[in-house]
Amino acid sequence: MAYEIALVALADPTRRHVFEQLRTGPKSVGGIARDMPVSRPAVSQHLRVLKEAGLVRDEQDGARRVYSIDPRGLGPLRRWLDQFWDQALDAFKAEVDRPIPPLPSPPQSPRRRRRS
Amino acid sequence: MNRTISIAPVLKDIDVNAPPARAFEVFAGFRWWPKSHSILESKSPQVAVVIEPKVGGRWFERGEDGSECDWGKVLVWEPPKRMVMTWMLDSTFQINPKVVTEIEVTFTAIGAGKTHVSLEHRLFDRYAEEGEKIRAAVDSPDGWPGIIKAFAEAAAA
């Protein structure tokens, strides 16, 4: 399931810390690395994984690249719910679109009346 | 400065081959609810999902053993156009009255016995607030893997 990718992405504690740095607002790689005991290239690598998992997005802000939490992707739960509602609504549609079966005809009498 | 990151709602649409009254009625019957999507804590197989058709009505799941698990309450009941209910599902897939999200379903006729059904599942910020608490409580090497395991088990159930 796609949500597992997001779950795995957040399993690494350093990567989780990178992700949580973005909760207070968008930051550049340098801005994130400044507050962490890891190198800039390591932060970049973590951001790449988080981006692939759909948890963060980036945009150009002048000369620097700025990362922020992707509000459409936050949390493996939302991914799971997205897929869940797809399945649920497909099941609902199948139920509504099902042709209503015709009323059963009255049971036949086992013995036929003889015509005289 | 604390800023809450706003989380976008889940938005889904689907068109069905029935007029709104029937579409609403079938939806509200919940006979279509995938049995795999069960949150019953007693782990009894789900036999029914029921919504009481009135404001304040219960929305709950019933197990084979007769046990019931409340999922939420009806906020709006306007057949055949609209229903809104709360869902107390937290980020560990358990029912938690402190985490209340909302689901709104609308039914709009699109001519010749067809209905456009749209569903919005919103207020995920409440998951984020709860997530902060969970994070603080389980910020340890054992905490997160436990949550991941609960996720995986609940989703696979």
SSE pattern of chain A, N- to C-terminal: HHEHHEEH
How many H/I helices of chain B? 3
Rough shape of chain A?
A: rod-shaped
Largest interface: A-B, 38 and 39 residues
- Give a count of the beta strands of chain B, DSSP E runs of length 2 or more: 7
Number of DSSP strand runs of chain A: 3
Q: Main sheet of chain A?
A: 3 strands, antiparallel
- What global shape of chain B is seen? globular
Q: Could you estimate the helical fraction of the residues of chain A in percent?
A: 40-55%
Going by helix content, strand content and strand pairing, the class of chain B is: alpha+beta
Low-confidence stretches of chain A: none
Return the average pLDDT of chain B rounded to an integer: 78
Task: Enumerate how many helices of chain A there are, as a single number.
Answer: 5
Portion in strands of chain A: 5-15%
Strand order of the largest sheet of chain B: 1-7-6-5-4-3-2
Distance between the termini of chain B: 41 Å
Quick overview of this protein structure:
The complex is a heterodimer of chains A (116) and B (157). By secondary structure, chain A is of the alpha+beta class. Chain A has 5 helices and 3 strands.
Structure explained in plain terms:
- The complex is a heterodimer of chains A (116) and B (157).
- Chain A is of the alpha+beta class.
- Chain A is 53% helix and 12% strand.
- In chain A, helix 2 crosses helix 4 (40-52).
- A seven-stranded antiparallel β-sheet of chain B has the order 1-7-6-5-4-3-2.
- The longest helix of chain B has 14 residues, at 143-156.
- The termini of chain B are far apart.
- Residues 136-141 of chain B have low confidence and may be disordered.
- The interface between A and B is large, with 38 and 39 residues.
Task: Detail the topology: elements first, then pairings.
The complex is a heterodimer of chains A (116) and B (157).
Chain A: H1 2-11, H2 13-21, E1 27-28, H3 29-34, H4 40-52, E2 56-61, E3 64-69, H5 75-97
Chain B: E1 10-16, H1 20-29, E2 46-51, E3 58-63, E4 68-78, E5 82-87, E6 101-109, E7 115-122, H2 125-137, H3 143-156
Antiparallel strand pairs in B: 1-7, 2-3, 3-4, 4-5, 5-6, 6-7
